Structure formats: structure tokens, C-alpha cells
Amino acid sequence: MKILQLATALLCSSAAMAHYTLDYPTSRGFSDDNEPQAPCGGFNSAANRTQFPLTKGFLQIKSGHVSADIKVNVVYGNNPTAADFTSAGATPASSLSIKNPGDSCLPLDLSTFKGAADNTNATIQIIYNGGDSPLYQCADVILVSSAPTFDTSKCKNVGAAPSATSPGGTAPTNAGSLVSMNGVKTAAAVLILAVVFAL
Ligand SMILES: [Cu+2]
């Protein structure tokens, strides 16, 4: 268990930084320890809803990893179940990758996404893989054509903007990045073994 914690600390860019946080729209809740729990990082009931525009929406995250592959799912309804999230995962609303730690603004335009309509309750799920394990955050929203309370000033990037790998519901192709992730894990494991033996 100690080894696992060490591995997490090594894989995150700084032990003091969380894996990642969803900073906007408001997350259902954040617990660094529970973030690996599907579907919403340990928070299983819908919380306060943020107005989210159908056109030109975004998700603002802060990443503790230097790079990550990210999948975004949209689930409809007032309080979706774990099974609802699983079935929504078959047609992600967006797949992106980021190459910088810190602030990233993930574009999410749902204007042509299946089922997205004005005045619809939905939950946006982020599945983030920075190399340790998939990490989950959710935001409960109401999708609207006009979203006057959606704060567009929250969108900011440190370094390069995220790149979309497959927008609009196409399944992500992650084969290449999975290989490099395993490379990172192996490197961390070797490093840990070296530390353990040095002690
Ligand atoms: Cu992490």
C-alpha cells in the first residue's frame, strides 16, 4: 500500500497537488483519495446544477499530471445511475489530450450531440487518465440554449490548449497512449524499487 502511494506521488507532478480538480462548472465533490471511484469520484448523488450552454461550453480543470488523456461523457436525467454512465460511455461527447500540468480549458460543444436540447438536466462526467488510474469527476448541469450565468471568464490555459482526439461521439483510439502510459508506470516502479533498496 505504501508503495502504491509512493507511485501516485511520483506519477503526479507534485505530491502536494491533487491528481486533478474540476474547477468549473462546479464539481459534485472532490476527494483526492476517492477520485479513482467510478462514476463520479465517490459522489453518487446529483448536486447543485450549473447552467451549461449547448454551444461553446467548456470544462475548466487543474491537472497535477504533466499529460493526460481525457474522455467526457454526457448523461441525461435528474440523478443518473452508475449503469447510465456506463452506457453513455459508449458514445463520448469528447475525447481530448492535454500536455501541460496546471490549468486547462476543455472545449465541449454539445450543439450537435445526440439528445442535447434546451432545458435538459444532465450530468457531465470527466474520465481523466494521467497514468495512475482513471480518475472521475462530475458536474450536474442544465443544458440551455442561452446561459447568461455561465462564466466564460473561467476558461484559461497554461501552455498549449488541449487537443481534441475525437469530438462528437466517436470512440477514442488510445492504443498509442496506453503504451506510453505503461512506460511511465514501469519507470516509476523501477524508481520505487531503487528507493526501497537504497533504504
Ligand atoms: Cu494522479
TrEMBL record:
List residues of the Copper acquisition factor BIM1-like domain.
17-158
Membrane topology according to the record: Lipid-anchor
Q: Which residues cross the membrane?
A: none
InterPro entries in UniProt: BIM1-like, BIM1-like_dom
Which locations, inside or outside the cell, does it occupy?
Cell membrane; Endomembrane system
Show the CDD domains listed in the entry: LPMO_auxiliary-like (cd21176)
Keywords attached to this Swiss-Prot or TrEMBL record, sorted alphabetically, are: Cell membrane, Glycoprotein, Lipoprotein, Membrane, Signal
Q: What is this protein called?
A: Copper acquisition factor BIM1-like domain-containing protein
